[in-house]
C-alpha cells in the first residue's frame, strides 16, 4: 500500500530549485526491482521520488525515467507525476485485466509488494475467472465477480500458438509450466526453436492436435485440458465457438493486438497468474523493460532515418498503421521516420504495390517482415526493388526464422536489433540476431554488424 506522506508540494518546490544534471555511464540496472522502485524497498511510492531527488547517482536504467540519456531533475518530476502509474501491475498492455485480493476481498497489488490470496482474470473475450489454489474454498465476497473457477497452478493445458509458448517459457524456471503443456496446435507443422517443446513432441509428452483451422477435437477431449489457450480473431473464433459447444474452458490471449512491443511481452503476466508465477514474471519483465528502454536513449537525437516496412506477397502489400506496435517501435523507440505514418490506426492495411514502391524506393532502410523461407518469390513480387535506395546501399533487412518464437520472449533484443539497423552509429560493433541483412538476388540473409 502507498505510504501516506503529505509532502508533495514541498517536494516539487524543492526539486525545482535544484537543477543539477548527472549523466551516468551506461550500465545495467537493478532487475530485482521494478522501474520506479528507486530505493529498492519492493514498492513504488512518494518515498522513491524523495530518494531519486537525493540520490541521482543510480544506474541509468533505474533513474533515467524519461529516457533522455541523463538523470536529472526532470526525472524526479517525471516520477512524481507518474509513480501511481508505475505502481500498477500492468503498465503497458491495454487488454490485460487482473485483480488481486487478500483473503477478505480487499484489492492488493503483488507487483507492488503486497501478499494476495485470490485473483480474478478477465480474458480478451470478457470471461472472468476466479483463480485459487486447490486447497482454498470459494470466498463468499467473490459472488457475482466471476464466471468460472480455475484451480491454479495449471497442470494440463492445450495451446493454440507458438507465441503462447514464448510467453510461458520465461516462467518455466522449475519446469512445471512447460510440463503442463499436453497439446499444441500446429505442433508438427513448423520448426520449433524451444528445445523442450521440440523434445516433448518427439517423445509424445506433447501431442500435435492439428491446425488451428481444423483441430482434432477428439484428441483435445482425450487430453481433458483444464484450459485451452486461444487467441481471438482469425481461426481462433472457430475454436472458441467449438470449445463452448464442448464445454471446454478456454482463455483468450490477445497479445498480438497490443500497440507496442513491450505491451505484447507484458502478457507474460497473464500467464503468470495461471501458474502462481508472479514473482518470476516481475523479475523477467523488469529486465526486458529496463533493457528495452535503452534503445530510446541510444537513438535519441540521431539524424533522421526513413524506414519502410512491408513488401508484396501473394496475400497483398501490407504495411503497419501509424499506431501499430511496429510503427511505434520505429518512431518512438528507435527515433526513425516511418514512411507510412499517415495511415492512422493499429494493425496493418493492404495498399497497392505502386503506392508502396513509390514511397519505399527512397527510404534509407527497408524491412521485409518475413524470413527467407517465405521469400522465394520476392523478386517477382516486388518489381523494381533493385532500384530502391535501401537495396543499393545494402540496408534491406528481413527477419530471422525464430523471430516469432524467441523474439517475443526476447523483446528487448528485438528492439535493440531494430535500433541497430536504423541507427548503426549508435550501436557500433553490435551484431543483430532477429533482423538480418537480406540479399534478394539469392534469397539469403545474414546477421548485420553495425560499424
From TrEMBL:
InterPro entries: ABC_Transporter_SBP, ABC_transptr_periplasmic_BD, Dockerin_dom, Dockerin_dom_sf, EF_Hand_1_Ca_BS. Residues 156-426 form the Fe/B12 periplasmic-binding domain. SUPFAM superfamilies: Helical backbone' metal receptor (SSF53807), Type I dockerin domain (SSF63446). Pfam families: Peripla_BP_2. GO terms for biological process: polysaccharide catabolic process. Residues 31-90 form the Dockerin domain. This is ABC-type Fe3+-hydroxamate transport system periplasmic component-like protein.
Amino acid at each position: 500500500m502507498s505510504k501516506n506522506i503529505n509532502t508533495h508540494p514541498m517536494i516539487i518546490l524543492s526539486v525545482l530549485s535544484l537543477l543539477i544534471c548527472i549523466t551516468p555511464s551506461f550500465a545495467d540496472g537493478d532487475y530485482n526491482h521494478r522501474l520506479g522502485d528507486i530505493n529498492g524497498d519492493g514498492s513504488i511510492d512518494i518515498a522513491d521520488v524523495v530518494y531519486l531527488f537525493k540520490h541521482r547517482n543510480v544506474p541509468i536504467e533505474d533513474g533515467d525515467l524519461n529516457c533522455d540519456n541523463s538523470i536529472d531533475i526532470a526525472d524526479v518530476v517525471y516520477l512524481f507525476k507518474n509513480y501511481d502509474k508505475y505502481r500498477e501491475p500492468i503498465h503497458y498492455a491495454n487488454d490485460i485485466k487482473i485483480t488481486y485480493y487478500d483473503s477478505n476481498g480487499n484489492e492488493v497489488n503483488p507487483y507492488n509488494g503486497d501478499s494476495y490470496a485470490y485473483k480474478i482474470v478477465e480474458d480478451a473475450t470478457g470471461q472472468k475467472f476466479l483463480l485459487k489454489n486447490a486447497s482454498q474454498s470459494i470466498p463468499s465476497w467473490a459472488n457475482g465477480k466471476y464466471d468460472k473457477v480455475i484451480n491454479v497452478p495449471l497442470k494440463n493445458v492445450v495451446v493454440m500458438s507458438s507465441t503462447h509458448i514464448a510467453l510461458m517459457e520465461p516462467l518455466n524456471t522449475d519446469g512445471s509450466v512447460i510440463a503442463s503443456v499436453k497439446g499444441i496446435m500446429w505442433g508438427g507443422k513448423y520448426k520449433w526453436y524451444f528445445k523442450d517443446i521440440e523434445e516433448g513432441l518427439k517423445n509424445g509428452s506433447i501431442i500435435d492436435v492439428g491446425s488451428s483451422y481444423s483441430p482434432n477435437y477428439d484428441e483435445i477431449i482425450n487430453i481433458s485440458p483444464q484450459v485451452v489457450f486461444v487467441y481471438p480473431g482469425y481461426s481462433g473464433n472457430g475454436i472458441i465457438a467449438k470449445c463452448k459447444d464442448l464445454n471446454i474452458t478456454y482463455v483468450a490471449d490477445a497479445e498480438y493486438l497490443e500497440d507496442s512491443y513491450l505491451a505484447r511481452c507484458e502478457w507474460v503476466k497473464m500467464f503468470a497468474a495461471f501458474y502462481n508465477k508472479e514473482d518470476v514474471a516481475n523479475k523477467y519483465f523488469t529486465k526486458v523493460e529496463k533493457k528495452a528502454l535503452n534503445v530510446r536513449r541510444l537513438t535519441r537525437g540521431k539524424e533522421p532515418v526513413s524506414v519502410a516496412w512491408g513488401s508484396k506477397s501473394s496475400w497483398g502489400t501490407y504495411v503497419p498503421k501509424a499506431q501499430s506496435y511496429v510503427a511505434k517501435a520505429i518512431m518512438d523507440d528507435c527515433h526513425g521516420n516511418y514512411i507510412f505514418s499517415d495511415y492512422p490506426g493499429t494493425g496493418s492495411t493492404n495498399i497497392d504495390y505502386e503506392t508502396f514502391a513509390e514511397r519505399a524506393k527512397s527510404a534509407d532502410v527497408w524491412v521485409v517482415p518475413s524470413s527467407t523461407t517465405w521469400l522465394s518469390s520476392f523478386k517477382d513480387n516486388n518489381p523494381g526493388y533493385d532500384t530502391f535506395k535501401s537495396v543499393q546501399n545494402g540496408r534491406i533487412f528481413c527477419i530471422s526464422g525464430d523471430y516469432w518464437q524467441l523474439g517475443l520472449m526476447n523483446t528487448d533484443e528485438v528492439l535493440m536489433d531494430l535500433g541497430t539497423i536504423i541507427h548503426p552509429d549508435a550501436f557500433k560493433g553490435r551484431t543483430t540476431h532477429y533482423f538480418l541483412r537480406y540479399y534478394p538476388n539469392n534469397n539469403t540473409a545474414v546477421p548485420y554488424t553495425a560499424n
